[in-house]
Backbone:
């Protein structure tokens, strides 16, 4: 049971863009709220007052393996405590792309060099005017950071379990209030946000050996690091806790969750420094990638990540592409879907891809952006999905046609949090779900998937998908849409 994905059935939340944590509905150009230009044109010309929304879908997770969460990150998911979520990039006001990078992809800027040198001056007793001179050759920020910290007698960091302490919460409160003007917090919310995690207690706690290895990451003779799971890296300067990096160490890389710093040390540019440090640490502990969360092209709080180079996830293809390849496509907060077929009108199937590792587009320069063909006002995805929904309904799986053909208002209201729109980029298309049902592939969940059925109050196997109630069958199909068939087979779902 410890390897199972233990989750709730999926939720879908839709709210006014004024509640968006990034743009707050205040973008100067309304066009930038829309994922696809033709939808903006339609509503701009109609002057109907309809706009994009703030849309998120996800599940409450009680248990997830680190390996599974690694795969989910590459499907566009992130976590807030134990809640796993991803945005609906078609309806949402902001395009939130998964971004990852490596030390080789970083374009070291003058600003980054200045940041490292400022840090070096503050914490290294050997820093003097001679050290300020630029060294010949490329600037190796990894080695600069290692050398500086190794020589410092007033600065160090410590990796430790991601658990609550009063000292950590006091720093969090100071940061939130001074930097984000956020006074709506308490110790419980801090713990839920930055300490709670859906991993097993053993993974969260770790072992002494794991933490000793991790805290010895600067040692050139060490090459083996066992730690996977959440961690707090605490920064200490002159004996004071001045910052906390909240991260998840995954098999494929380090995932940045949140960074807290003491406003009194703002001159050290600790946020910029932490990204460079985590990149350096990723390479030193043999993790290939550094996952920086979401990249939002038109949000200054999020688009700075592009300065570190890297790749964006092409969500509909489960493949990464260089950020530089799609800069024009995502200008004005637009969505993109790449294809070698310029006439593609249907959503790509994803189930087989979700069973493997996220791929990389090999020849991105020769690809076409087909987002209008698929998701535009006259895009092919909507009719195909509605036809599939109708056929699924005939088989007692209660999907239905959208009441209106409009991403701003499908006519179904916002009260049913279990209703996922028929077309959502990055989910398995409903037409693919229909094929699974017709070909009996969906029956692979039989004698594998486990339900905690709240209607009867106990845990049971799904023995025969076809004999389940319509509600259960739809919940199973929705999970397959989100996670793929194999991951759903290995789950325990609370319904």
Residues:
């Amino acid at each position: 049971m410890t390897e199972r994905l233990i989750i709730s059935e999926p939720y879908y939340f839709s709210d006014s863009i004024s509640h968006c944590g990034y743009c707050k509905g205040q973008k100067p150009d309304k066009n930038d709220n829309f994922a696809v230009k033709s939808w903006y044109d339609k509503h701009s010309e109609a002057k109907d007052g309809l706009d994009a929304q703030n849309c998120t879908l996800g599940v409450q997770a009680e248990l997830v393996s680190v390996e599974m969460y690694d795969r989910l990150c590459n499907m566009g998911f992130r976590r807030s405590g134990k809640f796993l979520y991803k945005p609906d990039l078609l309806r949402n006001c902001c395009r939130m792309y998964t971004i990852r990078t490596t030390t080789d992809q970083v374009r070291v800027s003058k600003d980054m060099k200045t940041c490292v040198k400022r840090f070096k001056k503050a914490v290294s007793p050997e820093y003097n005017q001679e050290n300020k001179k630029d060294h010949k050759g490329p600037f190796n920020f990894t080695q600069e950071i290692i050398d500086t910290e190794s020589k410092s007698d007033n600065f160090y960091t410590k990796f430790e379990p991601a658990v609550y302490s009063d000292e950590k919460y006091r720093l969090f409160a100071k940061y939130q209030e001074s930097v984000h003007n956020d006074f709506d917090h308490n110790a419980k919310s801090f713990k839920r946000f930055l300490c709670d995690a859906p991993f097993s207690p053993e993974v969260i706690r770790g072992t002494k050996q794991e933490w000793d290895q991790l805290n010895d990451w600067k040692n050139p003779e060490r090459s083996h690091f066992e730690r996977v799971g959440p961690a707090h890296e605490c920064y200490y300067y002159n004996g004071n806790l001045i910052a906390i990096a909240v991260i998840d160490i995954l098999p494929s890389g380090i995932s940045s969750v949140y960074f807290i710093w003491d406003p009194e040390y703002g001159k050290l540019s600790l946020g910029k420094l932490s990204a460079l440090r985590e990149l350096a640490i990723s390479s030193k502990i043999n993790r290939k990638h550094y996952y920086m969360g979401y990249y939002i092209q038109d949000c200054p709080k999020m688009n700075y990540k592009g300065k570190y180079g890297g790749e964006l996830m092409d969500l509909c293809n489960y493949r990464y592409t260089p950020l530089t390849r799609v800069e024009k496509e995502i200008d004005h907060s637009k969505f993109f879907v790449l294809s070698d077929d310029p006439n593609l009108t249907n959503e790509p199937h994803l189930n087989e891809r979700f069973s493997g590792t996220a791929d990389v587009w090999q020849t991105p320069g020769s690809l076409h952006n087909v987002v209008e063909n698929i998701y535009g006002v006259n895009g092919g995805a909507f009719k195909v999905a509605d036809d599939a929904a109708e056929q699924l309904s005939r088989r007692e799986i209660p999907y239905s046609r959208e009441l209106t053909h409009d991403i701003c208002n499908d006519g179904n209201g916002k009260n049913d949090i279990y209703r996922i729109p028929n077309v959502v980029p990055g989910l398995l298309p409903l037409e693919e779900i229909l094929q699974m049902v017709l070909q009996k592939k969906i029956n692979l969940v039989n004698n594998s998937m486990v339900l905690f059925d709240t209607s009867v109050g106990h845990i049971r196997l799904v023995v025969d998908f076809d004999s389940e109630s319509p509600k259960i069958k739809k919940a199973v199909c929705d999970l397959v849409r989100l996670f793929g068939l194999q991951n759903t087979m290995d789950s325990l779902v609370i319904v």
User: Anything to note?
Assistant: The radius of gyration is 24 Å. The chain has a mean pLDDT of 94. The first strand starts at residue 5 and ends at 8.
